[in-house]
Amino acid sequence: KPAPGRPGELPPDGMDLDQLASALAEQGSYAVLVVSVGSAANPLLAGRYGQLCPPAPTRELVDVRLRERLEEEHGDQDADGAGGPLAGLLERAARLRADPEVTEAVGLDDLRPAEAELFASLLAGHLLGTLGREELLAGCRGLAAVQAYAWFAGVDRALAAPPPGDDRTPVRSGTAALFHPVAFRIALAVLGGASYSAVSAAAHLLTWELSVQSDPDSTPARPLFCDDPEADLALSRARSATGAVDVAGVEVAGRLVFYRGGALPAAVLAELWDRHFPVRAPVVRWLRLLADDPRPQVSMRAAVAAGELSVRDFEHGYAELVRPLADAPTPRRRMFAAAALDQAAGHASHRKAVRKVVDDWSRFGTPSLRWTAAMALGYGRSADSMDDTLDALARIGIRDDGKQAAVASQNVVRLLTHPESAAVLRRLAEWTAHRAEEYQDLALVTIVRLALTDVDEVLDDEPGTPLGDRGDWPLLVALAATRPELTGRLADLFWTALNTTRSRDVAFDALETLLRSAFRKDGRPWTREGLAALLPALVAEEHDRRRMDWLLRRMMRDQDRPLPEEQARALWRLAVPAGQRRSDEEENHG
Predict the structure, then answer these.
(1) Hey, is 250 helix, strand or coil?
(2) Does position 329 have pLDDT exceeding 80, yes or no?
(3) 96 vs 81, 111, 124, 202, 362, CA distance in Å?
(4) Would you give the DSSP letter of residue 249?
(5) Angle at which helices 437-452 and 504-516 pack, to 10 degrees?
(6) What is the pLDDT of residue 76?
(7) Which of 207, 369, 376, 552 would you label with 331, given CA atoms 20 to 30 Å apart?
(8) Cα–Cα distance list, 211 to 218, 270, 283, 287, 564 (Å)
(9) Residue range 412-417: average pLDDT?
(10) Which helix (H) or strand (E) holds 256?
């Protein structure tokens, strides 16, 4: 079993294996070399002799080893299963293995023989009373950590080998070939769930950064036809699956890639950040490059990983990743910094620090830092309360004659997807009545933006929420449909925008957009449910009905997109209850 143990000691390469095969053939013999999944595995298994060993069945492995452990304690006097202490322990063991907390702590889809041995020992120890519950869970969590340690241990051992010409083993492995396997595992930890092409491209980018960091005097070379996707997946305990990939706002089928176990991404990042300090510099440069990627599946996943790494060492993460990108000239980098800060705020241990940073930026920061603070506030976790969040957004939005009212209003709209949306609407109403015109303008911009923003643009991935089922609806209409208790406030705010001189035109255009969303292009109903709740509150007065009548007429006469008469009648009936319709209006609209 090849296991180099000293710096400069290299695993065998193809020439070594050729010589061994020839020597064995002369003796009519053969040999099997077992290579554990570590830093030496990829170059050996990628050669002519390499064969991937499929994983052994986890359940059977654990069952056999667990039974052996328990029989050592109780003997096999009841091995036929007919009652007795052993049978009772095995029943308890089955329940313990299925315990969701234990399953989550293990965090691996399948166990290798050594892992199954350790897991069985942990279960047996708990069943026999030698391990407490917390010790059991801690031991289970350690399985993924041990795997991550093995993946990174001695990766650059070959670079410490003596140079050629000193009668010792020469260096035989290029830096790119050496670093690609670990780069793939790091990329998968950061981008898991993204497309295979995105993960692979990110891995090659990181391979370059690692190679340059390790050997700055040489230009790294990467052979173009040496990748083995199946080996990469197998040796990285990963799997691929067909899923949806967003391309220019359209979902298409793609090949996605994941770790075979939810504990592996965190274990890889922890091993990387906590035990290998020199690798931080190239990884930081790599994450900054991912921040520029136009694909959210790449940049936002990288931002989440940056937030998790910052939690492990906030001083370093803030200084090297968050602060430089928060003050960057490009919006993508600032969005990356805001998402990383929010991820850190999700940890109670770092929430206070994040909130202090965001508050300082909102008060004293440069325009770029205030912009980033607004984006962080839009997640809803970067201030002590919703009122504090709205105070900070107002502070950003009204400063410098409202130069950043756009980003402030955008994030007020994002907050309307939170359970505390009633507090947001209440604050918008206060701003519309504020004596300072800057507050009024911020409120009006927010109200119009609310009507023009689709749910998918502001809702985080939260399956099962009512709003999530209406991703292509305008948020204003979706809220009216799913939160009937808010309909009156929503209508009052939009009515204010329609009846305020400086916002009337854009609000009127937004109302037309809402009306057109009632039907899809093929005539099928779309947002009628929400409009049926919202429109009657908007046209309660006579002048409101006249305005609706005029707008529907204009839409019917539109040369580019004429509204069909049948749809205009349906919208009129949604907006105006039967008891409020006049005879001349009935004649016009059916």
Answers:
(1) strand
(2) yes
(3) 18, 17, 10, 39, 50
(4) T
(5) 20
(6) 55
(7) 207
(8) 9, 21, 12, 16, 63
(9) 97
(10) strand 250-259
The amino acid at residue 251 is E
Q: If you average pLDDT over residues 101-126, what whole number do you get?
A: 92
Over residues 29-50, the pLDDT tens digits come to 888 877 765 555 666 666 677 7
Look up the pTM and report it.
0.86
Closest alpha carbon to 494 in 457, 456, 569, 547: 547
- Give the up-direction half-sphere exposure of residue 203: CA atoms within 13 A in the CB hemisphere: 30
CA-derived radius of gyration, the chain = 31
Distance (Å) of CA 91 to CA 115, 487, 539: 22, 55, 67
In DSSP notation, 39-108 reads TTHHHHHTSTT--PPPPPPHHHHHHHHHHHHHHHHHTTTTTT-SSSHHHHHHHHHHHHHT-HHHHHHH--
Give 467's Cβ-side CA count (13 Å radius): 25
Whether residue 341 contacts residue 296, with contact meaning beta carbons closer than 8 Å, is answered with no
Q: Is the pLDDT of residue 301 over 60?
A: yes
Q: If you average pLDDT over residues 67-87, what whole number do you get?
A: 66
Residues in the chain: 590
pLDDT per residue over 473-529, tens digit each?
999 999 999 999 999 999 999 999 999 999 999 999 999 999 999 999 888 999 999
User: Rounded CA gap, 169 and 7, in Å?
Assistant: 11
**Between these two residues, 221 and 128, which has the higher pLDDT value?**
128
Which two three-digit tokens encode residue 192? 């898991």
- pLDDT: is 62 or 13 the higher one? 62
Does residue 380 register a pLDDT over 70?
yes
Q: Output DSSP code: residue 419.
A: T
405: pLDDT strictly greater than 90 = yes
Mean of all residue pLDDT scores within the chain:
88
Amino acid, single-letter form, for residue 287? L
Q: Which helix (H) or strand (E) holds 151?
A: helix 133-152
What gap in Å lies between CA 407 and CA 393, rounded to an integer?
9
CB under 8 Å to 29, separation ≥6 — which residues? none
Backbone angles phi, psi at 474, to 5 degrees: -60, 135
At residue 171, the pLDDT reads 45
Tokens at 196, concatenated: 């295979």
